[in-house]
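[audit] Reproducing an earlier prediction to check determinism. Same input, same settings, fresh worker. If the tokens differ from the archived copy the diff job will pick it up downstream; this log only records the rerun itself.
[audit] input (398 residues):
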Amino acid sequence: MGLSIATNMSALTAYHALGRTSGSMDRSLERLSSGYRINRAADDAAGLGISEGLRSQARGMSQAIRNAQDGISVVQTADGGLQETGSILRRMRDLAVQGANDGVLDDDAKANIQKELGQLKAELTQLAHTSKWNGTSLLDGTYQGTFQVGANAGETVTISIGDPYHGMDAAGLGVSSVDVTGKVTVPSTVVPAVSDDSGTPAAATMDLGGDYTTAGVYPATFKALDGTIEYNGKTFDLGTVDYTGATTATEYLTALNNAAAAALGVSSSSFTGSAGGLHFTGDVPATGSTDADAALLTPSYTGKSGASAAIPLIDKAIRLVSAVRADLGAFQNRLDHTVKRLSVAVENTDASDTRIRDTDMASEMAGFSKTQILTQAGSAMLSQATQAPNAILKLLSG
């Protein structure tokens, strides 16, 4: 190649080579210092897209693990409450067996046994309505929890504790009627409430047998009322009404209505009496009400069991609690396996993302060393190339 002053091609070639080498070394420095092979979309557009998807999936599964662990906490809290429920029921069974021993117990002794049974039933109900997790009731029959246990939509599991609107309280377990004193059950007839979803909203009604207006008869009929009415999540023990001072049928009925209003939150005229029975009318379901709302506004009556019938009632309740606890245990085991499965999936997903995004430090360091040497060599050759015009000056001066 001829000698030229206007254009030093050797210097330009060395300069361009040095620029490429310097750019490569800058990228190596960035990768080595950040630990990532992909620091911007231009580094690997396809790899970045795959990596971002993997990262989203891994983060979603990590959150799903925490969700599943929350579910385990819920189950453990509910199971703890049911464990105590079982203990209460076993004590109630002991008392029922004792109360059935008619050969040695008089009415006063049975009444004393019934006092403890009454307190235990009240504790069952209180336990069911106060067992909560993060403010959510677990044992009152309303709990139905859906847990997101996957990174994608639809990856959920659902658990219900007890039957809808029949929780683990005394009424839901069917032991409200447990009474060893042998009081008589009053027959009842119930017409369910109608919701707005099912037609024209209509109030539920309930009729209890007996004569509540005939002179000389109604005082004994009112005082003989016994059993429990459950309505809108509340209970009313008919045997607790105080008729002191009442002399007329209207006064007896007023005392009953006032007690019902305080216990159930209904109007003070919900009960009406006649010679043919006692009639209860509930509230009319609101506009837009559902069948579930109507079920809550439908009363149920539970009479007294007597000592002999109390034992099978409690046995049935114990079996129900055991079945619910078994369901909870199975659900907890399922969630345990879910956590383990997700943990492995997160590990494998992170490993895939690492292979795409992270820098191979050994390989990158080898490349960096190479570009570092080439940079030094390029700088030296550029220096040499810039000296080439000096030969032309010597030629001209010769």
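[audit] rerun output stored. Observation attached for the diff report: The mean pLDDT is 86.
[audit] end
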